[in-house]
Design goal:
By secondary structure, this protein is an alpha/beta fold. It has helices at residues 26-34, 56-64, 75-81, 109-118, 121-131, 137-143, 149-163, 190-200, 220-225, and strands at residues 2-7, 13-18, 42-47, 67-73, 90-94, 178-182, 204-207. It starts with a strand and ends with a helix.
């Protein structure tokens, strides 16, 4: 995976944002500038899960930090659990589950496969509209991924291969503190999120009107800070 530092001062508190599939660093940069809830932390964003290995600079920063917090969105919830962290002080999952491709606890396999097989510029636009339902247009433009559709498809193909490798899912040494689910999520349906986190024993806070993109929804930042 790739990493970008958004704020780095070696202040002791480290926040890692595991982004959704297909995204880049623009979401984290926008959030760091607009949200006081992230103040006082070094912040890095991780994305592009063609390689699930944690970059060395992030491993080193996590090992030396006084505290490590994870904020994982969408497919990043699954990727964070595979990253090999030894100690995490707090982790919040946003509109994602530990089971990325699963009929009852994640994205249904036929939807996952259909997305992969049909991915192109036109379907990308339709996917973004579903993901960003109700999000102000100016925010959509400021966080829209600048990666190519071909690169996004290659990433989803790599995720599919990792899921099909036949190896048991790794059990991280930490667990998610809470999950936040959107009732209007058209990617990870709310019912599947509820089932997944109930099975994992993780409390869920649901926002009935929240779409898959959660960061503009009223009350989410207060819940993240709680």
């Amino acid at each position: 995976m790739k990493a970008e530092w958004i704020v780095r001062s070696d202040g002791g508190r480290l926040l890692l944002l595991f982004n959704g599939w297909g995204m880049d660093g623009r979401v984290a940069a926008s959030l760091a500038l607009s949200s006081s809830a992230l103040a006082g932390r070094d912040i890095a964003v991780l994305y592009d899960y063609r390689d699930l290995s944690l970059p060395g600079c992030i491993s080193e920063a996590a090992a030396s930090a006084d505290s490590v917090e994870l904020l994982a969105w969408s497919m990043g919830v699954w990727a964070a659990a595979r990253a090999g962290f030894g100690k995490v002080d707090r982790a919040v999952a946003l509109n994602g589950t530990l089971w990325s491709r699963d009929a009852e606890r994640g994205i249904p396999p036929e939807v996952f496969t259909g997305t992969l097989e049909s991915w192109d510029d036109g379907n990308r636009q339709r996917f973004e509209r579903r993901m960003m339902t109700g999000v102000p247009p100016e925010l959509v433009e400021s966080v829209r991924s600048q990666r190519s559709s071909a690169g996004q498809k290659a990433e989803l193909q790599a995720i599919a291969e990792a899921l099909s490798a036949g190896q048991p899912e790794p059990v991280p040494a930490w667990r998610y503190s809470k999950a936040i689910a959107g009732g209007r999520d058209q990617i990870f349906r709310a019912g599947n999120q509820r089932r997944a986190w109930q099975e994992a024993g993780v409390p869920v806070v649901e926002f009935p009107d929240m779409p898959h993109f959660p960061f503009a929804h009223p009350g989410v930042w207060e819940e993240l800070a709680a």
